[in-house]
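Section 5: illustrative case.
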């Protein structure tokens, strides 16, 4: 697997668990198990996604980080939706 595809795969998996409105707990080990990756690879990919503003970090729930999708992207996808209809 190419390392450059890892952030995309992690994003698609995280996006299926997250919303644009609320921070939700998301264990990186869950993503790692689901994708057959090492937890360290997921951690690096999540950092990339946060740095690129695709996801936002929220308050921790104990040892678990919380995330949500960046709502700016929701507005963009909603704006572009009529173009694909």
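Designed sequence:
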């Amino acid at each position: 697997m190419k390392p450059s595809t890892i952030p995309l795969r992690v994003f698609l998996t995280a996006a299926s668990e997250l919303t644009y409105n609320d921070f939700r707990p998301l264990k990186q080990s869950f993503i790692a198990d689901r994708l057959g990756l090492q937890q360290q690879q997921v951690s690096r990919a999540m950092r990339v996604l946060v740095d690129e503003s695709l996801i936002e970090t929220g308050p921790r729930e104990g040892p678990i980080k919380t995330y949500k999708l960046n709502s700016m992207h929701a507005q963009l996808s909603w704006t572009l939706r009529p173009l694909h209809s």
